[in-house]
């Protein structure tokens, strides 16, 4: 493969949205950031120079980073942050992955504006396993705040309250026609009668699962999270933050203008940003020219209701691998993790200003009742490799500390998770199954759970409490979809399987950033195997230290 060199300068740049300009953190002054385009088998060498006043790291979301865990990016997990004025070069090779991924900052809430598409085409000379598209367009769904997102999250952590909702959703950085001061910049996606195009849809929003629809056009799903799927046709997509979905769309309508639209899927009982972002699908031969088009209104699609879980379920259950796959069996590690919010008591040393969650509490969240706390003096990966004690403990529980009716009426005594920096150790090559069980603590919610360093098979999902006796019979061990982020149903569960064949320290977390802030994360510590192909590379010389 080829080697691609890029320079990313992290810097404050004036960005005007919703009638106001503020200094946003960008890469090379671009918002969204640059699109990276490579082929399977290529190597990326990306030098980050931090000219902003915040610490930063960059994560290559969905890239497996086989043996190159030092390039994964989550701050204090695989590296210390790149300080203002500092730099770090990420180097990694794409081994066997094709499709749409993305990159984003993995430090505080910087990814609100620091993100971009990462497109991996087949190896040179090879073609897609579907009709060759005439055009390809990345569609990045984002979330925009009128305030500095770093201030929004700081305010929330100071007070323990829920952070403010965003003020807009965006498509390729633009809110679109339905927002103030936005219509002249609405994104236009070209199409022509008869042609079939590929849209690479990425949910880069911080905290919101989104429905996505295009008026009068069917979408044929061909890939998700850079794994091909058995093609299926649908009117509407739902993507949790972190997920990607590639769709084919055919210009089979009379040449005109149609809205591409996205808005919230909200399964939690909480306030949310109820606005709709739009772009325009425009036929090149539409009878209006670019100058008089503004007079003709594009056709608006009817999006599902914000709480339409039935549509989400039908959609997520449509995914299959294109052909039978080798799903791990003879499981070595049978894990059961609860996912939940929580409300912690106000420590007595705090005055009431610092505990503005419900009834004077502070919001929290956890897996198996552990609310994850990042270290601050060294990364977990360094501590793991160099056997430095006192940074983390490897006693993350394989099962919830108490069993309860997870999706029933949960006793308030179970609402307070315990903070900790805990990992779960995996032998190289272990065959792992995890039941991810949502709970009714505070509110049930559809959580997009993302695992770094691996793709996993989603063998089943369902509602209520996972029942090992009956639900195991429903597992798809033939052609389940391969993903890096699973949208766990609200008040339900999902079961994933993977083989721990990549040594390192790998974060697993909810991709709603507010939930990471509250502790919905844990780390897998995967040992080296035998020989070079099973052993982590040594740390790069410029690895940022704390
Ligand atoms: Cu896309 Cu840990 O993140």
Can you characterise this structure?
The structure is a single chain. The chain contains five helices and 32 strands. It has three domains: 1-126, Immunoglobulin-like, CATH 2.60.40.420; 130-321, Immunoglobulin-like; 333-534, Immunoglobulin-like, CATH 2.60.40.420. It is mainly beta and 546 residues long. Strand 1 and strand 2 (20-27) form a beta hairpin. It has helices at 149-159, 309-316, 380-385, 468-471, 513-518, and strands at residues 3-17, 20-27, 36-39, 43-50, 58-61, 87-93, 99-105, 115-121, 136-144, 168-171, 188-191, 196-203, 210-214, 219-224, 227-234, 236-239, 244-250, 257-264, 277-283, 333-344, 362-367, 370-372, 418-420, 423-426, 431-438, 447-451, 456-463, 482-483, 485-488, 492-499, 504-510, 521-526. The model has no long low-confidence stretch (mean pLDDT 96). The chain is globular, with a radius of gyration of 22 Å. It starts with a strand and ends in a 20-residue tail after the last strand. Strands 10-9-12-17-14-15 form a six-stranded mixed sheet, with no helix packed on it. A six-stranded mixed sheet has the order 21-20-25-30-27-28. A five-stranded mixed sheet has the order 11-19-18-13-16. Bound molecules: CU-O-CU linkage. CU-O-CU linkage (C2O) binds next to strand 5 and strand 31. Lignin degradation and detoxification of lignin-derived products. It is found in: Secreted, Extracellular space, Apoplast. Its main location: secreted. This is Laccase.
